[in-house]
Amino acid sequence: MKESFRNRLKHLVETLARDRQAAFASRCGLAPSTLSHYIQGQTVPPIDKVAKIAQATGVSLDWLILGEGPPFRGDEEFVYVPRVDVRLGAGGEAEVFDAEPKEVYAFRRDWLLQRGNPKDMRLAKVVGDSMEPTLKEGDLVLVDLSQKEIIQGQIYAVRLFNGLLIKRLQRLDQNRVRLISDNPVHPPEERNLESGEFEIIGRVLWVGRNL
Fold first, then answer.
1. How far is CA 99 from CA 82, 83, 158, 200, in A?
2. Are residues 81 and 113 in contact, defined by beta-carbon separation less than 8 angstroms?
3. Cβ-Cβ contacts under 8 Å for 29 (sequence gap 6 or more)
4. Domain ends where: 49, 71, 93?
5. How far apart (Å, rounded) are the C-alpha atoms in residues 42 and 153?
6. Are residues 23 and 104 in the same domain?
7. 8 Å CB contact between 57 and 29
8. pLDDT tens digits, residue range 46-71?
9. What is the rounded CA–CA span in Å between residue 40 and residue 42?
10. Domain boundary at 26, 51, 71, which?
11. Tell me: the pLDDT tens digits for 156-188?
């Protein structure tokens, strides 16, 4: 049993966290060293720890413990991510990003779990041409509301004054950030992170569009 559990756990780490044990451990509320001991077979986890892993990854507890049945069953293979009725890039009046969803879209659970916690994800539509050609008006973007740390050059949904924008971010120093549009018609802007006029909503992970 210990050997088969090890293999299933190792498979989860490889599949859902791209073999990043520290990230997987954090998601499951475990110390990285504890997870490493489980994978190496040095320690057999108590049932409460196994349950935490199953809950964090969305897999069946029967599959994780006993190897019985598929990891995901039926609709459990999919996660429904809400689309909120906000406009990214349009600016204008204040909008609540985590508002009542207008509709939901189905994503494969394992695909989302490779990128973060599905509970933290929202979909929103892009308005305007400031991020063309990368993002076009009407595109649907997947935003992870938990990812607020700036990764240089990545795209984020941000609040500037009372408007919501979508920009590439470049951290200049501890207090300043540059907002970059992919469309050269729109010049970059610099903002103070501590001024209260600027807030990171989340990082854009995916874009979808109709042809």
1. 10, 9, 15, 16
2. no
3. 52, 56
4. 71
5. 41
6. no
7. no
8. 999 999 898 888 888 888 988 888 78
9. 6
10. 71
11. 999 887 688 999 999 999 889 999 999 999 999
Residues 6+ apart with CB under 8 A from 185: 129, 130
Dmax (CA) of the chain: 61
Q: Is the pLDDT of residue 13 over 90?
A: no
| Token digits of residue 140 | 């649907």
The whole-angstrom separation of Cα 52 and Cα 19 is 19
Strands 140-144 and 155-160, sheet pairing: unpaired
Q: Tally DSSP H helices, then E strands, for the chain.
A: 6, 9
The Cα–Cα gap between 59 and 42 comes to: 23
The boundaries of the domain holding residue 195 are: 76-208
The owner of tokens 């985590």 is 98
Q: Where are the alpha helices (DSSP H) in 75-171?
A: 109-113
Do 10 and 66 lie in a common domain? yes
DSSP one-letter string for 114-132: TTS-GGGEEEEEE-SSTTT
In a shared domain, residues 88 and 182: yes
